[in-house]
Design goal:
This protein has a four-stranded mixed beta sheet, with no helix packed on it. The protein has a four-stranded mixed beta sheet with strand order 5-6-7-8, with no helix packed on it. It has a single domain, classed as Endonuclease/exonuclease/phosphatase (Deoxyribonuclease I, Chain A, 4-Layer Sandwich). The protein is of the alpha/beta class. The chain is built from two helices and eight strands, in the order βαββββββαβ.
Length: about 130
């Protein structure tokens, strides 16, 4: 697939549109679906697949948190393991045919903004051509 341009759909899982699966079928144009605040534990991810998409999860360790990236099945990707911090969940992929990386970061509301921006600076320094969501 030619990925000179692509669309990303971002949703907060704790407040998704009604009937999320139906919504996604009707809006099947997005190559990537990004969910924040999934509230999922690792063992629950097997029940959260979306037809036509592969997925990458970083699961919560406490109430709230959790992120997911869904990638259309015909797009080659590689998962990048970026260590979570106490107040951040991070999921990341490298798109095989492009030099881009998609990095999703969920910042817990109680996290000190200065600490968050320090973490963000470090990530941006390590991963060139990153799209941060």
């Amino acid at each position: 697939e030619d990925l000179c341009s692509f669309q990303v759909l971002h949703l907060t899982a704790t407040n998704p549109p009604p009937c999320l699966q139906t919504y996604l079928k009707e809006h099947n144009y997005s190559e990537f679906i990004i969910l924040t605040e999934t509230w999922l534990k690792q063992e629950e991810t097997k029940y959260s697949s979306i037809y036509g998409y592969c997925d990458v999860f970083k699961c919560r360790t406490s109430r709230g948190k959790g992120v997911a990236i869904y990638i259309k099945k015909d797009i080659g990707y590689e998962e990048i393991n970026i260590e979570d911090t106490e107040d951040c969940n991070i999921a990341a992929i490298k798109i095989e045919k492009l030099k881009y990386k998609i990095i999703e970061i969920y910042r817990a509301p109680q996290m000190n903004p200065e600490d968050f921006f320090d973490n963000l600076d470090e990530i941006l320094g390590r991963y060139k051509n990153a799209i941060i969501i």
